[in-house]
Write a structure and sequence with these properties.
Layout (H helix, E strand, L loop, with lengths): L1 H31 L6 E2 L1 E6 L1 E4 L10 E2 L9 E10 L5 E11 L7 E5 L5 E2 L4 E10 L8 E12 L1
Amino acid sequence: MAFQLSQKVVGLAVLGVVVVVVATALTTLGLLSSSRSVQSRGAIKAVNVGVYWDSGCTNASVSIDWGLLSPGASGNVTLFVRNEGNLPLRLSLSTQGWSPANASSYMSLSWNREGQVLAVGNVTSATLTLSVSSGISRITDFSFTAVITGTEQ
């Protein structure tokens, strides 16, 4: 009988320790968690190409509102790029004019059309992705210009 009682006491003690450890872990995780949202804007500069919101190329894109992005998150925007020149173009993407200047240390812009050759008059959809570092701090609003360039081939 004493052995059974001793097993129950040990079992309850172990259960108590587990509950305390789990509660401490949950409390600690809650204390270490924080987030900050980042307002954003963007402009588009196109060189030798047209950039549009629609595949029919009737609604020109001149700026992008990336919306509210959290640290560690990314946002996607789909645009349509048309070769408006008379030679095939190799597409590239860059950025300029970051404000504040250090925003480019915490954010990066990429796309799925880097190096693609676009024939005269052709249109391709392009997905631009703006990634925000989880280490971003003290930046709540920013702006920059995305530059889509077509280099003649």
